[in-house]
TrEMBL record:
Protein name: Lysozyme-like
Keyword entries, A-Z: Membrane, Transmembrane, Transmembrane helix
Cross-referenced Pfam families: Lysozyme_like
Limits of the CwlT-like lysozyme domain: 52-203
CDD domains: CwlT-like
UniProt cross-references to Gene3D superfamilies, sorted A to Z: 1.10.530.10
Segments passing through the bilayer: 12-37
Length: 214
């Protein structure tokens, strides 16, 4: 009788162990899946979602680009606007500095879009169609184009850092330049945004979808 009882107990323990292992395996699988989903959602929040303010400028941007037969650039320009201002304010393309050399001289959103697009197209032409260089030059200024040409002719983030460092050393009052990123402060590269190209491109898939949905 004892042997039979022991055998039954062993069978019960085995069955219990199997159920326990299965339950633990299922728990860890669900936990991993929840982390993946959560991270994916975080990525969306951190850089790829366009604001409603920016989406409201789709028609204006497309119509302005149509004047130069450059409508295909509309998603890219929309991405630039998202990085510049999120579509907020009277100068959503943050084009005042390009036009006047100081912030705030443009107070009309339509003027901002028109001038911002004209400036971007100039950068693109001067950069011989190299979008990466044109995008970074929209942030740094046209001087970056010559700097790239003098240093191999191809865009890289290392060149962006080097240019920013050089320009930052030249400014009379460095305190007027806010270090946008911790990396910029560590590198003494607080002139402009050294990761501007990457930031703009992070919005591009959503911008392309936005124009498909029109």
């Amino acid at each position: 009788m004892k042997k039979k009882r022991n055998r039954k107990q062993q069978q019960l323990f085995t069955a219990f162990g199997t159920v326990l292992l299965f339950g633990l395996g299922l728990f860890f699988l669900l936990f991993i899946l929840s982390v993946v989903v959560e991270n994916d959602g975080t990525e969306q929040q951190e850089g790829r979602v366009l604001s409603e303010d920016v989406l409201a400028y789709r028609d204006t941007i497309e119509q302005e680009l149509a004047k130069s037969n450059q409508e295909s650039l509309a998603p890219l320009v929309l991405s630039v606007m998202m990085q510049e201002s999120g579509g907020r304010g009277d100068d959503p393309m943050q084009a005042s500095e390009s036009k006047c050399g100081e912030i705030g001289c443009i107070e009309d959103p339509e003027e901002s879009v028109a001038y911002g697009i004209a400036h971007f197209l100039r950068m693109l032409e001067e950069a011989d169609g190299e979008e990466d260089v044109a995008i970074q030059s929209y942030n740094f200024g046209a001087g970056f184009i010559g700097f790239v040409n003098e240093n191999g002719g191809a865009f890289s983030e290392d060149l962006a850092v080097e240019f920013s460092q050089e320009q930052y050393k030249k400014v009379e009052n460095p305190e007027i330049y806010r270090c946008i990123r911790p990396e910029s402060e560590e590198l003494d590269a607080c002139y402009g945004d050294i990761q501007y190209v990457e930031a703009v491109y992070s919005y591009l898939p959503a911008a392309q979808e936005a124009f498909k949905d029109k």
